[in-house]
Amino acid sequence: EIVLTQSPGTLSLSPGDRATLSCRASQSVSGNYLAWYQQKPGQAPRLLISEASNRATGIPDRFSGSGSGRDFTLTISRLEPEDFAMFYCQQYGSSPQITFGQGTRLDIK
Amino acid sequence: QVQLQESGPGLVRPSQTLSLSCTVSGDPITDKHYYWSWIRQRPDKGLEWIANFYYSGNSHYNPSLKSRVTISGDTSKNQFTLKLSSVTAADTAVYFCARAIFSGTTMVVAGMWFDPWGQGALVTVST
Hints:
The complex is a heterodimer. Chain A is an all-beta fold. Chain A is 0% helix and 52% strand. In chain A, the strands form two sheets. In chain A, strands 2, 4, 5, 6, 9, 10 and 11 form a seven-stranded mixed sheet that branches. Chain B is globular. The model of chain B has no long low-confidence stretch (mean pLDDT 95). In chain B, the strands form two sheets. In chain B, strands 2, 4, 5, 6, 9, 10 and 11 form a seven-stranded mixed sheet that branches. In chain B, strands 1-3-8-7 form a four-stranded antiparallel sheet, with no helix packed on it.
């Protein structure tokens, strides 16, 4: 099973700041099939990024994903008030074995 | 626009079987481009994938839950169902259904991600 470790656990920033969230895999993610989700309290997760860098339909271009192999990054270029939430990464491995990271909480400073 | 809605009992007794349905609107569960999935989130914890269903019968299960999980579909109702047997308090969670987009082929899936998700259903296991 591939374990995903997200860092930092909590990130405190202000609107207008740039946010950089990390997701590190315990082994290489095949095909770079790594996705990112945003979850607000009481809501379901929302897909932001698939295949490491493909923005989902309707997602603003201030959200971007990058990375390959074991290291992946979600960047929010300029934070809006509605961006503060929990963020999860997710990978697909053979068998299959689908795993999520433990999450990064993005708080308003 | 695809929408998913979970339904089922909110309280299940220990050792019983949890049963949840997901009704899909806007897309048939026989759509060859998608799997259909269950994912849960235990209190103050992260997300845990449970199982995937494909209309032709090719299903996938989380190895840690496989012995207790059954996933199936009802094309006449455009629903798919999760059954989790022998539940304990550790199975208390919000259960989400989701459409799973995949790459590769249906028999050899290379990658998978989830969009959209249902709103979630809280299931409490308690006496």
